[in-house]
Specification:
2 domains; 12 helices; binds iron/sulfur cluster; elongated; Rossmann fold; 11 strands
Length: 347
């Protein structure tokens, strides 16, 4: 009996990786999925905690894809190794802080390591020529294959007919004629294919598979690096950039203000690591201070906290300020008047 070959598919949770894996599965190849957790992934994260997003499904799309395909999914934590990819991208950043080309190369390299350790034969990605301006161009496809070390073990089933034959095709592990020739930014061919396969409830394509493609998120990250004068970061930093309203009234401290109950609850878990404030004479959000709050800044921080409380139109609001040792004090302040200054401070 002919040997059944084994492929690992990079699964982001989007439609392209779903289709790419399906095309290869249908050729009788054993496929398992791999999903790399960088800390910036959109999947199953803080977009799920806000009240306004309650109607959106909370599922992890990578897991959903694996379930739809009936394949095993390996979720691999690469948070530490990814730092170097983000901080020192050889090919630079995309429109925001997304180092897509280096990121793709890194993930394929990790997948290559994985197939060697797990006795698999090749790697599949859902890349499509012309789909993304930075990483998915005809000229960048060989760069990813070469720099990852995967070379002809990297197969892109959705656009394979535009690319040189890979080892799985040459060896007859997969039939090249059954691979596809999708290109360009239009999603119509993928949607038609999804329809043909009977996939209906797939994730709608957005700007990218991680927060680094988001301008606001990227601005916050750059602000974090600049004000700390250090590009090092921890997973908690990355999490906090996704949540709340961020204001920087002074260079040495930033305020993270919960915008609603879901965010306040999420931030509660981090409260003890930060100096934090909350109105005590009325309802108001939890406010975390990132940086050093000097004694002369406390009144301003309390005024801003009061501004976002239900007492914003009162003459005086009492705000509780708690330091990192848990010692609290009460400060009575007039809420800050809104005169456009909050917009200037917003990150
Ligand atoms: S969108 Fe994010 S996860 Fe996807 S390739 Fe670009 S940097 Fe990597």
């Amino acid at each position: 009996m002919a040997k059944q070959h084994k492929a690992v598919a990079l699964i982001s949770g989007g439609l392209d990786s779903l289709l790419a894996a399906k095309v290869i599965l249908d050729q009788g190849v054993h496929v398992e999925g791999i999903n790399f957790y960088t800390g910036f992934c959109v999947e199953g994260h803080t977009h799920a905690i806000r009240q306004k997003d309650k109607s959106k499904p909370k599922r992890n799309n990578a897991l959903w894809v694996a379930e739809e395909l009936g394949i095993k999914l390996h979720i691999v934590d690469v948070v530490e190794e990814y730092k170097d990819v983000l901080v020192n991208p050889k090919h630079g950043y995309g429109a925001n802080m997304n180092p897509c080309l280096d990121c793709k190369g890194f993930m394929v390299k990790k997948a290559l390591q994985w197939i060697k350790e797990n006795d698999f034969d090749f790697i599949i990605t859902g890349e499509v020529i012309g789909q993304r301006p930075m990483s998915q161009r005809k000229s960048t496809m060989p760069i990813i294959a070469r720099e990852s070390g995967a070379d002809d073990l990297l197969l892109r089933p959705l656009c394979a007919k535009f690319l040189p034959e890979t080892k799985p095709e040459k060896e007859g592990w997969v039939k090249r004629e059954e691979l596809l020739d999708i290109s360009g930014r239009s999603r119509k061919p993928q949607m038609a294919l999804a329809n043909q396969f009977g996939f209906v409830d797939y994730a709608q394509p957005a700007g990218g598979c991680c927060f680094l493609t988001d301008k606001k998120y990227s601005d916050r990250l750059v602000d974090l690096w600049e004000t700390r004068n250090d590009k090092n970061y921890e997973l908690d930093d990355v999490m906090m950039l996704k949540v709340g309203r961020h204001l920087r009234p002074k260079p040495h401290f930033k305020m993270i203000i919960g915008r609603e109950e879901g965010e306040n609850k999420f931030m509660e878990g981090y409260r003890k690591q930060f100096v934090h404030l909350r109105a005590s004479s009325c309802m108001g959000p939890l406010v975390l201070i990132d940086g050093e709050l000097a004694a002369e800044d406390e009144a301003l921080a309390a005024q801003i906290t009061a501004r976002f409380s239900q007492g914003r139109d009162e003459n005086s609001v009492v705000v509780e300020l708690t330091d990192k040792t848990g010692v609290a004090k009460l400060i009575a302040v007039k809420p800050l008047a809104e005169n456009g200054i909050l917009e200037e401070w917003r990150i």
